[in-house]
């Protein structure tokens, strides 16, 4: 297989979605930069094929950088009460770390109701509000 064939098969194997100017497909999603310089969409894509233990470690490592750069504070009481890492954001919302998807669950601080997901760049994810209550947090 020539170099063109190798490049083409690499693009197909990479799970790429949008066609770019040269006919090469580009990945979509949030292209904002994370504290380490990596793009948000590339970070999320890098988690897809990792074993659970490795994925959780990668997400927690990135979350620590995002939390620090956004001035968020860990709420140890809510973390223990909900058995998941919960942080208070400067905007007043609570953020529970979603280690499966590499995102945060945004939660109302008074009711504990799920408000939707945000990516590691703190951008909301469309249509991500869970009304079933399975993402709600205990806040009292």
From TrEMBL:
Residues 105-140 are annotated as: Disordered. Residues 84-120 form the Colicin E3-like ribonuclease domain. GO terms for molecular function: hydrolase activity, acting on ester bonds; ribosome binding; RNA binding. SUPFAM superfamilies: Ribonuclease domain of colicin E3. Residues 128-140 have a biased composition (Basic and acidic residues). Gene3D superfamilies: Colicin E3-like ribonuclease domain. Signal peptide: none annotated. This is Colicin E3-like ribonuclease domain-containing protein. It comes from Photorhabdus australis subsp. thailandensis.
